[in-house]
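Hi W.,

Here's what went into the run:
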Amino acid sequence: MAVLSRLLRARTTTSYAIRSFCCSYSTSSPPSSSEIGGIAAPSLASNTSTDRRNVQWVFLGCPGVGKGTYASRLSKLLAVPHIATGDLVRDELSSKGPLSSQLAEIVNQGKLVPDEIIINLLSHRLQIGEAKGESGFILDGFPRTIRQAEILEGVTNIDLVINLKLREEALLAKCLGRRTCSQCGGNYNVACIDIKADHGNPAMYMPALLPPPHCASKLITRSDDTEQVVKERLRIYNEKSRPVEEFYRIRGKLLEFDLPGGIPESWTKLLQALNLDDHEDERSATA
Ligand SMILES: Nc1ncnc2c1ncn2[C@@H]1O[C@H](COP(=O)(O)OP(=O)(O)O)[C@@H](O)[C@H]1O
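Here's what came out:
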């Protein structure tokens, strides 16, 4: 991981040409896979075997789709770190370090942070993980541009990219409904999405995820979750991040996943799509 973090940094701050990448993150043969709906979903066995490196997955999807929710659940299930670049940016903002005023302005306008800054934050996070003995990762919010995807491809192999999808009309409401408990850090959503079936689209119901009573008076909203800023983030996603889906689609790494409804239903279906449903049963049985 230290090598990965150093290479990431070198790759973006200089014109460093990476000729080879040889460590446990090198180009080992891709994990064995089973075909699901024409998409190669990894078999867990290949990713957890000790003679291979751990999973290296990426989550893509519009703001509000739920990348953080599902990436964090998978990270616990697979025992790999969930690394969200949005969280790294928010940590930097709250640290009041030298970058924070520049970052605040960018984030509060819904714009993307320059690649150099994001890669430095990510490299630093990977180095800390290395020191703690972490291996593998589930990236959430990175890469968000073709350039970031190319930089990542230049330094390591990504096994799988999960593209979470939700109907457009639900995304804004879900962003505006997000709340975090300022004390325990728990994430909730006060929006209840109830879309009727129309024009061949099925109905969709996502209940609110309400906080427990002890968090209810401590809820905060992200400063960039206002209607104007979310609309700008959605516009930027379509302009800069949508092409990243195609980048991975043509490389045969993209798993498209339409969220069918609320978390219990979507989680079960996501595990099935990833061939991980047996694994969760085993975990609960041995817990
Ligand atoms: N990979 C990235 N490249 C550039 N900016 C980023 C990246 N990841 C996060 N950011 C910045 O952090 C903000 C919050 O990111 P995130 O929490 O992932 O938001 P979202 O809910 O829009 O997916 C983004 O709007 C952007 O300003």
